[in-house]
Amino acid sequence: RGTVVLAATPIGNVGDASARLVALLQDADIVAAEDTRRLYDLANRLGVHVNGSVVAYHDHNERNKADGLLDRVEEGATVLVVSDAGMPTINDPGLAIVRRAIERGLPVTCAPGPSAVLDALALSGLPTDRFCYEGFMPRKHAERVQHLRMLQAERRTIVFYETPHRIADAMDDLLDAFGPDRPMALCRELTKDYEEIRRGTVGTIHQGVVDDPPRGEMVLVIGGASDEEAQAAAPATLSVEELAVL
Ligand code: SAM
């Protein structure tokens, strides 16, 4: 039997590719990549020749593709799973093959490496002993408000992924939900030449986003609720009246 290997890829700085990733790209029998063009681009930049076959493995086909790839693992193949950047399965494809491998009793392992969530958390200066990863906020305003309401009493440091075209709306809703005083960091273009960490409070970061809209990829890190904030938090569910005005 072979193995499924999830491998993290750089989130901006190609120098973050691990020696293990390089060896796997060279030696895996099959590379299942979120975007095959980006995979070849990474391989070129690393000076690696991908000897195995490369297949597209993305959000839209991962459930259908997982079993076929696992059939090959059963026959002895090493199947390397990579996403466009960072750790597969973290807001990226990969979970379907992990689940099916577990169900079928096939080996699955990981070559860990860069992921924006831990990079941002570590640089934020906020408590790291307990945190919750929230991925992307819901896109629709009403759902976002409802979701943030649920998080008002959360005591752990909260990490969100965000995009430049939604950051202004997201900051408005974060200010409404958490008030201006919660400590916060906006971590942008991590590991790249223009890496920038804006540290302050929800209020100061909100103002900064208005004055100087951040571009590129970004992660938002927000301090958890204090005892008083947790106690004062509004009920987690919006009333019918509140929903009506959103
Ligand atoms: N699998 C990836 C990981 O492990 O971090 C996440 C993929 S998700 C589709 C893309 C989001 O990750 C971006 O919108 C941004 O929030 C965050 N991200 C990825 N690279 C980043 C970087 N270099 N700097 C800041 N945020 C980044």
TrEMBL record:
Domain of life of the native organism: Bacteria
Subcellular location as annotated: Cytoplasm
Major localisation: cytoplasm
UniProt catalytic activity: cytidine(1402) in 16S rRNA + S-adenosyl-L-methionine = 2'-O-methylcytidine(1402) in 16S rRNA + S-adenosyl-L-homocysteine + H(+)
Keywords noted in UniProt: Cytoplasm, Methyltransferase, rRNA processing, S-adenosyl-L-methionine, Transferase
Keyword rRNA processing appears in the UniProt entry: yes
Domain (Tetrapyrrole methylase): residue spans on this chain: 3-205
GO annotations of cellular component type: cytoplasm
Molecular function as annotated in GO: rRNA (cytosine-2'-O-)-methyltransferase activity
EC number: 2.1.1.198
Family according to the record: Belongs to the methyltransferase superfamily. RsmI family.
Function: Catalyzes the 2'-O-methylation of the ribose of cytidine 1402 (C1402) in 16S rRNA.
Protein name, as recorded: Ribosomal RNA small subunit methyltransferase I
Protein's gene: rsmI
Range of the intact protein held here: 36 to 281 of 326
